[in-house]
Amino acid sequence: MLTDAQTRALAHQFGTPLWVMDAPTIRQRLASLRAFDTVRYAQKANPNVHLLRLLREGGAKVDAVSRGEALRALAAGFSGGSARAATLAEAADADIVYTADLLDRETLDFVVAEGLVVNCGSIDMLRQLGARAPGHAVWLRLNPGFGHGHSKKTNTGGEHSKHGIWHADLAEALAVIQASGLRLVGLHMHIGSGVDYGHLGQVCGAMVDLVRHVKAAGLDLAAISAGGGLSIPYRDGEPRIDPAHYFGLWDAARREAQELLGHPLHLEIEPGRYLVAEAGALIAEVRAVKRQGSVPFVLVDAGFNELMRPAMYGAHHGMHLVSGDGRALAAAAPAAVAGPLCESGDVFTQGAGGEIELRALPQAAVGDWLVIENTGAYGSSMSSNYNTRPLIAEVLLDGDAVRPIRRRQRVEELLALELSAD
Ligand code: LLP
After folding, report:
1. Is the CB of 379 under 6 A from ligand 1?
2. 380 lines ligand 1 (CB under 6 A)
3. In the chain, where does the domain assigned CATH 2.40.37.10 lie?
4. Which residues contact 353 (CB under 8 A, 6 or more apart)?
5. How far is the CA of 155 from the centre of ligand 1 (A)?
6. Ligand 1: distance of its center to the CA of 228 in Å?
7. Among residues 328, 342, 417, 421, which one is catalytic?
8. Residue 162 CB coordination number (10 Å)
9. Is 229 annotated among the ligand-binding residues?
10. Domain 34-270 listed as CATH 3.40.50.150
């Protein structure tokens, strides 16, 4: 995505570490899903308000999983109010859907006041919403009893997952909807991040079965959601999802469900990673090079407080080195790449069990740039202030234009939270 010259120029202009996002890549990924009636961006992947605007301009809708994310969506120009729309078809096309397994008290007030359509992952959530706002439009997020993910931590289905209403409890959920006067918009399922086609057949089959149950209970619905979870090839040779094939499988499920219900159904998808992961890179500077016995380490100025995925999941990110002094890079040799944090797990090259992995990299020197690739999803959004490190800047590339979309946080801003606490 980045040429060496761009990397050097960006690092010099904005300093490192630096998040870089590429607008054309995001637009292209969004366009590749246009067969779906709604592409609902799961903003947890990267909620920068400028990216939300870009996606809105491209026709996407948005998902929110916290009051903060919903406020971002509103700030980006998406509208609330659809929970009170006159028809279910309008509610199905809501700009913002609030998805969760519970509503804290403040958020319950908020979704009702803003009229946000709510995707309910627990029956208690339905009861609380129904008691407060009869007539509110809701989706049911169902747990089909199985799940799948690139790591145990990203599997969101099955009995070890807290997510969604258990499939066998659908009848109870529907009874609560009927008793409380809530309006059912649709059924939603998200079983994890990193789908493969094998699982997809099973998911689509489960969705059709659940629609059959809704019909049998005497209720109707306007939409089904395929959830998110579309993977991207993080490693060379990993397969790339074919959006047309993916759509085809879900469209077949939609048709079956339409036949059961006797009317058209809206088909939605809710990707995060697929839309933004490959649009992002993290640029860091090499600040030390050392050898611990037999293991060569390249130490850079970004840590797991910036990019948490390797430490959290053993996630693999491609990386490449750009020479800082213009020298030709030597042939690649294995090395570990680590950050500045005061913690042994602050290593970007590690397996799922935390074991250090060596990566083939040209001999690095202090002042070189390291580009960590495919970090547009769950990179900046999972960053923390660990070791009192301020959040770093983010820029958006759009052809020749470079636009800062987040300035670097200041330590004083962190301290102010504590110094002004009383
Ligand atoms: N919809 C729901 C209800 C979700 O829970 C998620 C992700 C998505 C959509 C979007 O999934 P995606 O298309 O991005 O795979 N931090 C982890 C991923 C956690 C995802 C949680 N939910 C990672 O870095 O891989």
Report:
1. no
2. no
3. 4-17+278-419
4. 314
5. 9
6. 7
7. 342
8. 10
9. yes
10. no
Q: Which CATH number fits domain 4-17+278-419: 2.40.37.10, 1.10.3980.10, 3.40.30.10, 1.20.1050.10?
A: 2.40.37.10
Q: What is the β-pairing status of strands 369-373 and 280-292?
A: antiparallel
Q: Ligand 1, residues 190, 191, 381: which to mutate, most atoms within 8 A of Cβ?
A: 190
286 vs 364: CA distance, rounded Å: 7
CA distance 256 to 271: 23
Q: What is the pLDDT along the chain (422 residues), one digit of tens a residue?
A: 799 999 999 999 999 999 999 999 999 999 999 999 999 999 999 999 999 999 999 999 999 999 999 999 999 999 999 999 999 999 999 999 999 999 999 999 999 999 999 999 999 999 999 999 999 999 999 999 988 777 777 777 888 889 999 999 999 999 999 999 999 999 999 888 876 777 788 899 999 999 999 999 999 999 999 999 999 999 999 989 999 999 999 999 999 999 999 999 999 999 999 999 999 999 999 999 999 999 999 999 999 999 999 999 999 999 999 999 999 999 999 999 999 999 999 999 999 999 999 999 999 999 999 999 999 999 999 999 999 999 999 999 999 999 999 999 999 999 999 999 98
Tell whether ligand 1 has an atom less than 6 A from the beta carbon of residue 156.
Answer: yes
120 is catalytic: no
Query: Is the minimum distance from the CB of 161 to ligand 1 under 6 angstroms?
Result: no
Task: Say which residue the tokens 């959830």 belong to.
Answer: 227
Residue nearest (by alpha carbon) to ligand 1 atom 8 = 228
- Angle subtended at Cα 280 by Cα 279 and Cα 286, rounded to the nearest 5 degrees: 145
Tell me if 192 CB under 6 Å of ligand 1: no
Token pair 């990566």 is found at 359
378 annotated as ligand-binding: yes
Looking from the CA of residue 45, the nearest atom of ligand 1 is 14
Distances 200 to 197, 247, 270, 287 between C-alpha atoms, Å = 5, 11, 15, 45
- Region(s) of the chain under CATH 3.20.20.10: 34-270
Q: Are 328 and 42 in contact (CB under 8 A)?
A: no
Q: pTM for this one?
A: 0.97
